Amino acid sequence: MEDGLPSKKPEEGGSSKRPQERQGKHPRKRKEVKRSLRRSDCPEHLTGASGHRLPDQQAAESSESADDNSESCHKRWDRCRRGHFLHGPYPATHFGPKACILPNPTSVMHIQDPASQRLTWSKPPVNVLVIRKIRDETLLEPFRQLCRFLVEEKHLMVYVEKKAVDDGSLMADESFSAIRDQLCTFREGYDDISECIDLIICLGGDGTLLYASSLFQGSVPPVMAFHLGSLGFLTPFKFDSFKAEVDKVFEGNAAIILRSRLKVKVVKGMFQRHEQLLNTQENGIIPHNHINNEAGKVTLQLQVLNEVVVDRGPSSYLSNVDLYLDGRLITSVQGDGVIVSTPTGSTAYAAAAGASMIHPNVPAIMVTPICPHSLSFRPIVVPAGVELMITLSPDARNTAWVSFDGRKRQEIQHGDSIKITTSCFPLPSICCHDLVYDWFDSLAQCLHWNVRKKQTRLTNVCDSSETEN
Known about the structure:
NAD; 20% helix; six-stranded parallel beta sheet; Rossmann fold; Tumour Suppressor Smad4; disordered N terminus; six-stranded antiparallel beta sheet; alpha+beta
């Protein structure tokens, strides 16, 4: 975990052996995945074994002493310039251990056209994570078929949730027992599989994809989502031809869409007294030391795919929160709350609250009020590179509540803040056709966008000037 957040230790009784990649068709025993410890990055020091500077370093220092004035100017410039850009961070192009975007030729501009984004493999994928919707009996048979295909025909290492294979129907299925014993199981919150998964296959609806995103707080492997849920806006593949579709993905060159995520930090006790915050807001700008020096404690840091929702919770009073953009007070939200969403989340809760729907390739952040007590508060779109901060207004009568993709709901009190910006770790979603066709097809099939009974033509079409009576 980043920012010094405590990591959760696995429960006792788990296996201490990490699953090994299977070679050939040798049977494997069912095993639990142990939480892998992230290796710390150790900087390389250019010093000798005794700690003295090397001769080359002494020569370099003597030559650098003449440029002290120039370096001091550069340092002053580094302190003054912006720490981030309006276009947002450059997204990571490697997804998991083995997947990456096929690079453009050197003659093409380095700003890649989203329509040309293609998936390629540096090495053949070996470890596949299969996530299915729990408590849905209709998905048991597709789950059996997919696991059997990946293990017996593709000879892959398949990871599944422990609760997914502990289902009573699967335990009683003797024909599936041989496959079940070869699956690698993990438990959410205890086992870290983020460093060993090459491909994710989802069986379910949009909620299944959101859950898969929450398992990877850093780089996300490519996601192939089959439409087996109720809505399926984010799941373009049909399960009828799953073998052919999976083979195409393994061959590479599949179209992918990078769904941006939000990097969210919850800082507790950032401001000691809300009266002090009120005095510093006369010009609408938070002092520089409040922006860079986080006096509070970062209690939660998450990657969010859809939206961050701040609402009034169980209170009967209006929610009263302040919205900052890059340290400047933009507005105060008085109503039921506010939604900060990605372009992917613009078709979810934000759309129900009256926001426009944004294509996932548009680099932006959507800010949508929830039932605002104002006739002029319309949803706005801001650049992807800005940092939004939400705090309770000093004169707020009650606290607020925040949730992240509908999960991890917690209370926000006076002095707390929520910092939101675009993450550099998008979710690479594999397209069934292409990123434009899939999106508009989902609008038409799932949301019935602009569906209306068509107007019939007239039997005798005449010039308008001749129709006057």
